[in-house]
Structure formats: C-alpha cells, structure tokens
Amino acid sequence: LPAPSPPPFSSLPPFPTSSIHPSIRPPPPSQAVAQRRLIDCSLELGGKDAAYVAADADLKTAIPGIVDGAIYNAGQSCCSVERVYVHQSHYDAFLEGALPLVKAYTLGDPLTQTTTLGPMALEGAPEQIEKQVDDAVKKGADLLHGGKPTADPKGNGRFFQPTLLANCDHSMSVMTEETFGPVVAVQAVSGDDEFLSLVNDSQYGLTAGIFTKNTDTAVRLGQRIEVGSVLMNQCDTLDPELPWGGVKNTGKGVSLSKHGFRGVTKLKAFNLKMHQ
Question: What residues does 166 pair with on adjacent strands?
Fold first, then answer.
C-alpha cells in the first residue's frame, strides 16, 4: 500500500520550531509558514563544501580522504566535497594519486557487495551534472576521467560516471554552484591566502576540510573560513556532540549536540515565593 500523505506543514501541531532540509532553489516556503505561526525554523538549504591540501599536507591522507569525501554516496551528501584547492607544490602529485582512485569505482546495485558507486536519486541529476562538466571543459578545465551520465554494467540504473576535473577556476559553475554528484573538481592555489579568498567566494557555508600536519594551521585558517564546521584531515563527516549548521545561503539554526535542543524546546521560568 502507498504511504499516507503527510499533513501540510502549516497544519502541524504548534511545536516551538521546525527543521527543514530543502534547497535554496526555489526559496523554501517553510520559513514564511513558520513566521505566520510565530515559531522558529531551522533550515539547511545547500552547500558547496571545499577541501584544502595545504603545503604541509600528508598526501597519503589527503588524496583518498578527499576522493572519498567527494564520491561517497555518489556525491549525494549535504557535506560532500564539491571543490578542491591544492597547494601548487602538491598539485601534480594530487592528480596523479587521485586518478586511479576515481577510476576504481564500480557502478551497480547498492545491495551488491562489489558495488562501490550507486545511482543518482533525482531524475534530472545526471543531465545537470553533465552541464556543469561541459561548462568547465568549455572554459579550460581538463577532464581526466568520467563526465557523462551512464548505466551500470548491466545497462540498468541512473548513474553518473565518477569524474575528475583539473585546472578548474571560479568562472566555472562546477566550482560555484551545487553539484551533488560524484565529481572531484580541482584548482591549484599559491598558498593559504589564495585559498581563503576562494573558499569564501561562495554563497554557501556548511563545512570545509583542511589537510595539514599542523593543528595551528587548521585553527588559524578555520577561524577565517565562513562555514559552520571546520574539519582537519577529514571531510564529509560530523560528530553528534558538535553543533551542525551553516552560514550564508546554507541556512539558519543548528541540529545535533546540546545546542540542537535549543530550537526544539521552550524555556519556562518559575518564580516561586514561600509564605512567611
């Protein structure tokens, strides 16, 4: 039997807040409804999460971590890596190490043990991702692998090839607009300052991963990155004890951690006086 339709958002009981995970395009109606009902609204609306390979990064950690962070779940994760900035001293080595990992993915049924890359959830996703790849190539990026909608080896499914793009820049939509697919888009940077300029050149701000051997470097850079979560030597991950949220068009409010309870609770004061 088909699942029953949920009640309209506007008719739900008067909880103190609502937590919604739509997209910024088109603007979600949930905040307007919440405003009419005088309740708060926690929104996670999108992301364009970045990873940075600093000059002192350990490539044995950075390369597999970033490739997995971009392609895990076919890139369909709110905090998947969608743009990669690599210090110019590591650029060639990063691409050389990433290419065989991207090529190694096996498309297929997610219930099959040999499958390492599943299908796209949304019907129009493969075509939209292909448009971003084509735009990047047209503007000078090098397509090292993938870049096309496809099916699994049996001819089934709605897949997109695991993709590696080199020589990307911010004139390309693949570096500035949501991809939500298995694409590793890479740009070389001269150092920390250029990285900071580029990572903050985004309408979104969910997470950023910094690959470095120095905790001070991660903290120093992290303080200047406009995101809700800063990760060191990892990406596409979260900790339930830490608040989860973003800035800019990524949304408002937080979930997880003790701070996540603030949005779903109401404070009540008791001012009691005993009779003398």
Answer: 142
The secondary structure of residue 25, as a DSSP letter, is S
pTM above 0.85, yes or no: yes
Count CB neighbours of 125 within 10 A.
Answer: 21
The two beta strands, 159-160 and 149-150, are antiparallel
- Structure token digits, residue 62: 């950075």
Q: What is the pLDDT of residues 245-263, one digit of tens each?
A: 999 999 888 899 999 888 7
Q: What residues contact 152, with CB distance under 8 A and at least 6 apart?
A: 107, 108, 109, 119, 159
User: Rounded CA gap, 59 and 177, in Å?
Assistant: 27
Distance between CA atoms of residues 68 and 162, nearest Å: 11
DSSP string computed for 221-264: HHTTS-SSEEEES--S---TTS-B--EETTEE--BSTGGGGGGG
Residues 276 and 274: their CA atoms lie apart, in Å, by 6
Check: CB of residue 273 under 8 Å from CB of residue 104.
no
Q: What is the pLDDT of residue 39?
A: 73
CB of 233 closer than 8 Å to CB of 68: no
Structural contact between residues 28 and 22, judged by C-beta atoms closer than 8 angstroms: yes
- By annotation, the residues acting in catalysis are 44, 78
Long-range Cβ contact pairs of 144-153 (< 8 A, separation 24 or more): 144/95, 144/99, 144/102, 145/99, 145/102, 145/103, 146/102, 146/182, 146/183, 150/107, 150/126, 151/107, 152/107, 152/108, 152/109, 152/119, 153/107, 153/108
